[in-house]
Each structure stands twice: as C-alpha cells, then as structure tokens.
Amino acid sequence: MKAKVNGVEIHYTVEGEGPWLTLSHSLACDISMWDPQMAMLTRAFKVLRFDTRGHGGSETPAGDYTLEQMADDVHGLFAHLGIRRSHWMGLSMGGMIGQAYALKYPGVFESMILADTTSRQPPAGAAMWAERMQTARTRGMEPLVEGTLARWFTEPFRAGHPEVVARIGATIRGTPPAGYAGCCAGISKIDLTDRLKEIRCPTLVVVGEQDMGTPVEASRAIQANLPGAELVIIPSAAHVSNVEQPEIFNIVIRDFLTRVTARG
Prior knowledge:
By secondary structure, the chain is of the alpha/beta class. The protein starts with a strand and ends with a helix. The protein has helices at residues 35-41, 67-81, 93-104, 125-139, 142-152, 155-160, 162-174, 177-187, 216-225, 241-244, 246-263; strands at residues 2-5, 8-15, 20-24, 46-50, 86-91, 109-115, 203-208, 230-234.
C-alpha cells in the first residue's frame, strides 16, 4: 500500500492484530529487513512496516533529507492510518528516526527499541558520510556494497550464510543512489544525545557486540542519557543484529515488549 504524506509517497504494509508496533529499517534496506521478526510480532501486535523516503517502494525526492523530515513522514503516515499511539522499533537509521520522532512528537510512542544505532556522530563522521554520498551520486551503489556488508555482518556469518548476505547485498544494490545519499545527509548531522533526557517512554537499546558502524559505546551513551533505558548486547553479531542473530534478538525484544505492554 502507498500513502502520500508530508509531500512524499510512502510504501507501507500492515499485518497482525493488537497494539500498534511500527518498524523502521536501516539505511540501504527496506521493509524486508524485518522478515525474521514478523512471525513472532504479528501474533501480538498490529505491525506497521514502511520504506523510508528514498528506499524500497517509497518515493525518492531530490536533494538532502533531514531526520526531522523523516520523522514528519512517519507522523503523516500515522495520521493517514489513524494511529495515535504506537510502539517503535528502529535499527540504525530507523533508531535515529525514532529518537527524532520521540523528541518532536512526545507522548505518541508507547515504547522504543533502538537497535544498532547512535544519537551523535563522531568527529570524523561528517567526512565519512560525505564520501559515501559522493560515491553514490557519481558511481551508484555498486562500489558501496562489499564494504557495507563487511561492516554489517561478522566474517563467520558471511562465510556461513552466503544466501542471506547475498539477499541483503541485493537490497543495498537496489537502493536508489539519490535516496541513499539523501538519507546519509540526515544521518551525518545527528546530534541528539543531550536531549535524550526529554524522552519519557520505556526504551530498550540493543546492539551487536561486534558492531563497527554504531559501536557498543554509542549504545551505552544512549542508555546513560535516556532515563530508565535498558541495554542488551547481542553476542556474535555486527550491525544488523536482527538478521545475524534473529533467535536471540527476538527473545530480547519479545521479553521487553511483553513487559511494557503488561504495564499498560
């Protein structure tokens, strides 16, 4: 399904019954990134998945995007679907969008799961993102695929699960270069750590112990600055921990969601 919100056409799916739970994917992915979680989640939740602007089946506007724009896309989608309250789970860029949304629209999220993400870019981050944006815009996505996969998965997983790595590689390769670059612009400017204390919903922070892109230290910073946040480190996982260690990831998020929904 598609909806025109905030000036952009967003592709989305809704599955399951229960309280709303919204899933937001990583840069250079799409809603299929959450496939390993869907069978479990749809038993207890009405799950909204959407492709971020510039990704998957959503429209790719020209130019740079901001995290605030992407949060407004979500807000427009919520209005379109009549969603007043939702749990949120976002990985990497999806976690950044979640933080931006929770700060701009307080009281909408019942809870947040922030997986393999950050609240502030390191000093060298701007140059790194500028280089990736330049590569995508001048040479396309192909030169970015192998390096991205090397950061996203541990070497043993890449060797042992070539079919999964190939599938994710195809998603990276198929991401519109303009959409990738547009989102990189927003990611490169994230600086929310000092404002996390304003967020009041229960939050779980999850990170792969070998995540190089958004390392454990970044998740510890979120936990330290967001009141009451919990932290779980997933063993033998890099950046896309929900795909590399789905069984452990699913147990961790199921336990958290069971607790927060019981409170409500």
